[in-house]
Fold:
Amino acid sequence: MSDASPLIDEREAEFGDYFALLKPRVMSLVVFTAAVGLFVAPVPVHPVIAFASILFIAIGAGASGALNMWWDADIDAVMTRTQSRPVPSGRITGAAAKQLGIWLSVIAVVMLWLTANALAGALLAFTIFFYAVVYSMWLKRSTPQNIVIGGAAGAFPPMIGWAVATGNISVDSVLMFGLIFVWTPPHFWALALFMNDDYTKAGVPMLPVTHGTTVTRKQIMIYALLLAPVALGISFTSIGGPVYFAISLVLNAAFLRGAWHVLHRSDAAAFADKFSVERKFFRLSLYFLFLHFGGLLIEAALRATSLDMASWPQWV
Structure:
């Protein structure tokens, strides 16, 4: 991997270019799920420590994004969806992106360690390593299971938030990890279905490229079926409750219905309507994750105001 940018742009880099390196949309999801992990934990956290911890987790997520953009600049330059990113467009050099990613990683890990605890800092360090090295440098270009295994990187943030508050790992935090981990493959494979040409041009072995769209559609359905019990199972833990259960029940019904429609699509029909069903399922998957974690926040708020049902396990 070269540190040189694939293209040349004489314009001097602006603040917005460096901010774009941090993948702010991905960062926002990381921040949200980490914050939920922190707030639903049974141990109260001082607001200043909570704010600082979330800030350093966000910086760590941004560091991962910068390292990913440095390493993937060559394939980003080929794909239409990513050609305008700062490094392939030449607005920022690969060397600058790498340096920024490394320094932000060090700052985020050390400061989270000092602000919260050693476990939270260690989990953040492992998350950055997993995304930048295990996923970006190894899995992404070598196996169609890249997003299955690599999805763990995006699943760690709620565990980090939980560790900030409690200093440990519990069944609750592992289940939040599991929710994101099992959600990731159908989410990204839906994207891969309508971005298949980009991945083919770049030589990225996403499942539709290596095994075809029919296999991909079947795998989306399988993972949707696996996801439902994980999502609904959180209802019966200390962080779940009847509100979360109702939200999860509706969302999983919609998700399974969407996966069923994706499964029964032919390539001809998909091309004819520009993959509208697949695009809708991809958008649904975003709401799916956001609303599940939103439901956990609601349950935490109800417990905090003593309005929750203490007998939830017996309520059903």
Remarks:
- The radius of gyration is 20 Å.
- The chain has two domains: 12-169, 170-316.
- The chain is about 75% helix and 0% strand.
